[in-house]
Amino acid sequence: MKKQRFSVVAAMAVAGMLVMGSAHAGATFDAVKKKGFLQCGVTTGLPGFSAPDEKGNWTGIDVDTCRAVAAAMFGDAKKVKFTPLNAKERFTALQSGEIDMLSRNTTWTFTRDTSLGLNFAGVNYYDGQGFMVSKKLGVKSALELSGAAICIQAGTTTELNLADYFRANKMEYTAITYDTSEETIKGFEAGRCDVLTSDQSQLYALRVKLPKPDDAVVLPEVISKEPLGPVVRQGDDEWFNVVRWALFAQLNAEELGVSSKNVDQMLKSNDPGIKRLLGVEGGFGKFIGVDDKWAYSIIKQVGNYGEMFERNVGQGSPLKISRGLNALWNKGGIQYAPPVR
Description:
Elements: H1 2-23, H2 27-35, E1 38-42, E2 51-52, E3 58-59, H3 61-74, E4 80-84, H4 90-96, E5 101-102, H5 110-115, E6 118-120, E7 125-127, E8 129-134, E9 148-153, H6 157-168, E10 173-178, H7 181-189, E11 195-199, H8 200-207, E12 216-218, E13 226-228, E14 231-233, H9 237-256, H10 263-266, H11 272-278, H12 294-301, H13 305-312
Parallel strand pairs: 1-4, 1-5, 9-10, 9-11
Antiparallel strand pairs: 2-3, 6-14, 7-13, 8-11, 8-12
Helix pairs in contact: 3-9, 3-12, 9-12
InterPro entries: Bact_solute-bind_prot3, Solute-binding_3/MltF_N
Signal peptide: 1-25
Family: Belongs to the bacterial solute-binding protein 3 family.
């Protein structure tokens, strides 16, 4: 009997420690809360993902990912400031604490996830590397590119994928490297290279910057897996949880049919999953240190994942990218989030 009583007491103590742990905020969480805004690292300008307009207003999927986190933290998606970074600067800026999170079309890889002191919090866009060429070249396949001069952005996984692909297919190429994506498209436009290679989404985004976008074509080959998503520093689980579940909230909202247009009406829904997501019941906010209406604020102010995708890169945008792999798991894609329960 004493042994059984000891086991119960021990179990209760462990449970108490877990609850206390969940209520304790980490350094980044505390710092963001104290200063009253989120500092988010983005690209120097990539249409559809993160780009400023002539008035300095930022838009894009990666920008909206930052705003979703701000909405979860403060109930206000506008409480975010953006730091434009090139590929070489992005990880140092996060490691040094210059930014609170990185949301900059960044590929999740083994090395980046294990050796840089960083954690990827999810995937907001599944992508793959491709090639863009001028139509006048008459090239129909990447396998016809042996001997080509190829524009490429330095400090990216693109460089390694390109080398692997050409070596595997016994082809040669000349790399023309640039520090930014803007420089790569200018080099392509000026004829300094025959081909521009990058993530396919980036190719479509860069193509719209050409004087005559229809004169360039993206070849059919996809030579890599490029899961892109937000990144935080390791060692701060509380902050990691907020960033991860901000994205998961958007995915769950789309699956449940909750959008920015109907979220107020959905507060009256009898669906248990919707009630938990919107904070009507369950009290889940305390587990990540935020208000119970954290997901409601995200959906109301930023939208669900489908809304975010369509306005930035989907058929209603200049990029006109199909959902593809980024459709929900029950709609032919692989986007999927754990439930709020």
